[in-house]
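Re-running the complex after MR caught last week's input typo. The corrected sequence lines follow. Everything else is unchanged.
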Amino acid sequence: MASIQDIGLSAAINLMSAFAFLFAFAMLRLQPVNDRVYFPKWYLKGIRGSPTRSRGIMNRFVNLDWTTYVKFLNWMPAALQMPELELIEHAGLDSAVYIRIYLLGLKMFVPITLLAFGVLVPVNWTGETLENIDDLTFSNVDKLSISNVPPGSPRFWAHITMTYVFTIWTCYTLYMEYKTVAIMRLRHLAAESRRPDQLTVLVRNVPPDSDESVNEHVEHFFCVNHPDHYLCHQVVYNANDLAKLVAQRKAMQNWLTYYENKYERKPTDRPTTKTGYGGFWGTTVDAIDFYTSKMEVLAEKEAAEREKIMNDPKAIMPAAFVSFKSRWGTAVCAQTQQCHNPTIWLTEWAPEPRDVFWDNLAIPYVELSIRRLLTTVALFFLIFCFMIPIAFVQSLANLEGIQKVLSFLKPVIEMKTVKSVIQGFLPGIALKIFLIILPTILMTMSQIEGYTSLSYLDRRSAEKSFWFIIVNVFLGSIITGTAFQQLKSFLEQPPTEIPKTVGVSIPMKATIFITYIMVDGWAGIAAEILRVVPLVVFHLKNTFLVKTEQDRQQAMDPGHLDFATSEPRIQFYFLLGLVYAAVAPILLPFIIVFFAFSYVVFRHQVINVYDQKYESGARYWPDVHRRLIICLIISQLLMMGLLSTKKLAKVTALLLPQLILTFWFNRYCAGRFESAFSKFPLQEAMVKDTLEKATEPNLNLKEYLKDAYVHPVFKGKDFDRPRVVDEEESNPLVPTRRTSQVTSRYNSEASSSTTATPVANKNTGSPGSM
Amino acid sequence: MASIQDIGLSAAINLMSAFAFLFAFAMLRLQPVNDRVYFPKWYLKGIRGSPTRSRGIMNRFVNLDWTTYVKFLNWMPAALQMPELELIEHAGLDSAVYIRIYLLGLKMFVPITLLAFGVLVPVNWTGETLENIDDLTFSNVDKLSISNVPPGSPRFWAHITMTYVFTIWTCYTLYMEYKTVAIMRLRHLAAESRRPDQLTVLVRNVPPDSDESVNEHVEHFFCVNHPDHYLCHQVVYNANDLAKLVAQRKAMQNWLTYYENKYERKPTDRPTTKTGYGGFWGTTVDAIDFYTSKMEVLAEKEAAEREKIMNDPKAIMPAAFVSFKSRWGTAVCAQTQQCHNPTIWLTEWAPEPRDVFWDNLAIPYVELSIRRLLTTVALFFLIFCFMIPIAFVQSLANLEGIQKVLSFLKPVIEMKTVKSVIQGFLPGIALKIFLIILPTILMTMSQIEGYTSLSYLDRRSAEKSFWFIIVNVFLGSIITGTAFQQLKSFLEQPPTEIPKTVGVSIPMKATIFITYIMVDGWAGIAAEILRVVPLVVFHLKNTFLVKTEQDRQQAMDPGHLDFATSEPRIQFYFLLGLVYAAVAPILLPFIIVFFAFSYVVFRHQVINVYDQKYESGARYWPDVHRRLIICLIISQLLMMGLLSTKKLAKVTALLLPQLILTFWFNRYCAGRFESAFSKFPLQEAMVKDTLEKATEPNLNLKEYLKDAYVHPVFKGKDFDRPRVVDEEESNPLVPTRRTSQVTSRYNSEASSSTTATPVANKNTGSPGSM
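Corrected-run output:
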């Protein structure tokens, strides 16, 4: 194990690199030209204008006021100053609660560290075991850990007591935090202004009906079963192909703009391009004409696809967004079962319109069930066997292999520099590439599982990532060998043996984790604030694509808090802290620095940079809480395993009640708070309804909800329904129309017919009428 | 292992005893005097009159028609003749579905047996392993089992294939049965006539309010949050003390009747009794006067207690039965969350009035949570350590111990007969007594857990009993040593070792289980039909207590299907069948006989004898299904363990997909069917509401529901509310009154007041006004 001097040196290096990042950040953020990279949030909010207007030419790009450079850390107090309520309003509850996780880490570990250093460090230090062992070179660091206490010593009572104290303190902070977040969420929901998702339910698995279209079927079902509350609905179109076309056209548009800009700057020289892929080969043509014509073709295709979707009954998916007249009616429909067959007419709260994941809205129940089975099996193999394909790639990447397969490359490979690059980097790169694409793999798996909202996908990916980290980073660092070998050896060991095997190795790995914390947790977080990639991308875009202020607005990439990858990373620090609290307290200060530093950095980012894709009202908190409990239980199990190797097998049983109580605490908290994150109580719904009725008695809800849940590619196009609210609107049995031409045709038919069912419409075979 | 001859002999003995029971039953049931013991159901239904009226004196008691004796088994076809729909109507869905479990056993195991005997028995028989072993005495029975196949033989492919076939067949029958039962339940609910529980919700944990009584608080809450649906409610009184007094008075009444009967038969001799406990000591007094005066004292106490409950605000528990105007409104309230705090205003479907377990209606959430934790821990110790106190009692019960502690008993103990009785029976009796009181212990534990209906208590007790049987009967028979020793050795073995240890022993234990099936499953079931205890009790009561026809009616004890004890017993037979299907198919025919015989016997009992305490509409089926899946998984694990000891470790991995698919099948079924047993879909509710509104437009629901959920001790007494339906009834804000005197007083006050809240009533401090 490394000595205190070694750790000190490593800390110095990492601190220096962290400060280097911070200094670079401080320099760059003061340059007006980077303003949109480091303060995009304020631009999106419309509070900050473009800095290029008012100042001189030089001042537009470079900041020449030297006093601002001296105070290069003054963003830190600024980040801390915004009060929480303002922060919620400014950045949303999701972000505000997310940075509370770091605060929770501080609340949890500062008292634990004080206690551990006050009680356990003296006990360990005076243990005098390691001094008597000659053949191993132990350092001062080890003398601070539990390894220095002789086996069977009564000193372990201190550790057992402290384990209980730490558990109780952890549970207390978790309970208080869960309570606070639940209250924040309820207050947020209560204070929220009217939003379409408050009044809308997502209905999936609408059963096919031979007599009626999906549209009519949904309408009749809800008119009959929620007669007093049903207002209107929107069917879901399968617009995945259309979305692809729209994305293609956008890319073309970028190229067109690029060449137009080029031409504008150099009007003498009309730019050319080649017709092949990427513009690298093929015949040379005039670039602006080429892309203009391509755009036209795409526009035609798009129009045809739009037409097809509107007229093809098969383009309507068996799902719908059903809106109600009141929050009470919505809460009722979202939380009850509609049909005796629980696999059809599935209702759930509609996600926010931005939050909908459109591709997954129409998966049948059986398929969903099979998809979940398959992804679970796949996840298992991904976690435990992920090293196998990588080892395979690594073995392929050795020089002899490459020479044999691709013999013509021989002269190149035998060059000295190429050789060393391949030998030195290729194996590492294979692993690195895998780790970079891992979040994408996990997200794809969650998408295959069939969840219907982005927030849910994020939550599920975070769960997968968490287990990957536990098995491959945590256990992988402690025990040598691949996860699959571990799994095999665990299956062949008694269950009581596993915590022992792992527990024994824990004190020895403290320095590894300390180094990890400094590299990933200190320098890594400092790199986060520098935003190198968005900085480069913004300046590239700004140079080649931006013509107007609006373009510049779109060239900004504010990014967002990526819950799916960053939350499991925090959990890993919690796990380290809990595991090492009673084993090697020396690790704790490093974790505290991580939490404090991250808190400031992310608070700054949330205030100035990130723009969240959706707002879920901190719905992820039950997951965070549950995973923290899992970390706590892992730490307890490992402590039991460790103690049972110290000639204290009987005493270890004393830690069993702690484990049971933690399980119980988890169940208690789930019963006490979890429903605040998944259900909407009728009392609250009624209060909001009553208030709304009193304040806005003449609100036209139907008009308000009309286009709320239209697929983004249809937004603002083709869906302009007549704004006239005719008398039929008050009769819920008359369907709401979407496309104007069908509506007007149908209206004339419906007015001459007394039946509520649009029979006439059926004959025309036009499902475009919603 | 026993030979086929041994098993044949044992089978002959058990068959004979079973036939002896059946013959005794056939004789006894034909005697008119036993008619009420063997056909109580028909008396309760009012279809069968007393046989003593029409015939001659001799014929009243003994059946002299010899032809009826010849056909002593003719009850069997009679039991099978009633069609299922008629059975459901006659005995209820609970009973009809319960006997389908036996039928399911037949459906599952008859094809499995045929396949096993067609494929596995020849494969095993020609394995020729045991013939080559000299030192062990194997019999023909073993040659039919998997033990006869040499390790590493390709013959095991037959077993692996068959395991898959058996699993698929089992899952198929389970799926079909779940589907059938779900449809039966839905049809039953749809066809059901109006019942109070369809329109009522049980509300628990009503929060205390300093300004309002529980009564007012409930009313205002539901008036505000369910304005269109709330109808009325009934608060729950804490009448546990009163119920005790009522039970005491009933016992007194029995004694009084006994002495009055005695006096009537012998008018010259006025009966006497003694005043001490049980009438064994104390001063001698006139019995009739003594009990009459005692009755009077009790009646006074009862009246005082009643008065106290009506006037003491503390006697009202924070729970209420809230009724709604429609099934739709009820379904909504039962399935949604009312308040943002999920531990108060808890709503759930009200159990049937007969099904309510009144003692548990008012347990706060935190207490409930702690109670569940404690009973879970207690159950764990009960299952794994139950042998410890019994071993302690057994060690106390040896002769030396007793002589030492109670030396004055020495001369008695040294008598030869006493000695042999103590040595031979005491240890066994200690165990037997424990096993007899076990269901009571488990039921008490379930009661402590705080469930609110008898049906739920039964289901939870069955769950506990199931695990007790798995651990102590199944594993206990296979592995020697107490359950606690097993647990310890399991913790110290690798997890893959456990199925091996158990799996290896399985083939050797086949004969033990065959004997068990014959004793418990054949003779035991035959004893069930004889009803010895109810027979004796009925004749005792009939002789001493019965005066009128009504008394005789009450003296009948029809009993009921005891789900909590008998369902886990059936599960044990399923487990045996599944475990031995591929290992020792010889066991299967015995199980088939059990299922067939039990089916006939219980069908007869359900038709002629049992009177269920409640009707839950087969709500227990998800539990039955889940436990069957557990049995299937246990059998798969043990098969894997067994095969891995046969030099087939690699092949065993082929059985892993089977395990995963079974888990998935369980989840799929739960998602597909379970909600039919816990939720009431809004569509169905709406259909029933609409139908009721059309057929009975003038129904006075409030009158109908008035006394539905009154504690049984109040039934028909003191709760005569005014029958007049005044105009206030239509105003939901005016509370419903219960006791007439308070109502009339309040009515005069309320009519002069315009506020809806009964302020005047609050001042008088009279919470009796409901």
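None of the earlier attempt is carried over here. Chain B touches chain A through 46 residues (CB under 8 Å). Confidence is low (pLDDT under 50) at residues 51-55, 718-770 of chain B.
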